[in-house]
Amino acid sequence: MVPSFILAIYGAIVSTVALVWNILNAFSQFKGGFKVERQSEIKFGGPEGEIVASMSCKVTNIGRTSRYIAMPKLEYVNFENLSKSQLDGLALLQIESAQEYPKELKPGEVHSVNYDLPEYYEKVIKSLPFDTRLCFHVLDTHGKKYSSEHFTAGKVVSEVLGCREMSRAILGNRSQ
C-alpha cells in the first residue's frame, strides 16, 4: 500500500471521529436536566424556642440553558398497601402556591421548597408504615420527570423525634 493512501484513510477516520464528537457535544449542550435532592435541616427558634426538623426539596439546573420547572412534589414510591386517607394526606404537603410556577431556572441556579415537619408529621407521616418509601419529583415544561433518591417515612419520623429530644434536653437545661 502506498503511504499516501494510508494517511488518507487515517485522516478520514480521525475527521469522522471529530465530527461525531462535536455533534454529541452540541446535543448535550441543549439537552439540559435537573438534579433533585432531599435535604434535612434543623432550625432553631420554633414557637417556644425549640429545635424544629424540616426537610427541603432542592432542584438544581445542571443544563447549560435556562429551563422551566413545575412545582416540586412529594410522592409515594410504594403505595399499594396504603389506605385512601394516607394517600389523601400527602396532598397536605403540597404547600407552595401553584401561581409561582412554572419557574425559570438559569444554568446552575437552585430552587428550594421547604417543609416544616412537625405539623405534617402529626397529620400525615406519623400514620404511615415506617417502610413507606417517598421521593421528591419535579417535571420540566417538556413533561420529563426528575426524581430525588428515595427515603423512608421511618427516616423522617426519626428526624422529627430526634429534634424533639434535643429540644427537651436544651429547653429543660435552660429552665434549671
Given as residue ranges, the uncertain stretches (5+ residues, pLDDT < 50) are none
The CATH architecture of the largest domain can be named as Sandwich
- Provide the β-strand percentage band: 25-35%
Mean pLDDT across all amino acids: 78
Q: Give helix and strand order, one letter per element, not per position.
A: HEEEEHEEHEEEH
Number of strands: 9
Secondary structural class = alpha+beta
Multimeric organization: single chain
CATH first level of the largest domain: Mainly Beta
Radius of gyration, CA atoms, in whole angstroms: 24 Å
Helix segment count?
Answer: 4
Question: Which outline best applies?
Answer: elongated
Could you estimate the helical fraction of the residues in percent?
25-40%
Distance between the termini: 95 Å
Largest sheet: 4 strands, antiparallel
How many discrete domains? 2
CATH level 3 topology of the largest domain: Immunoglobulin-like
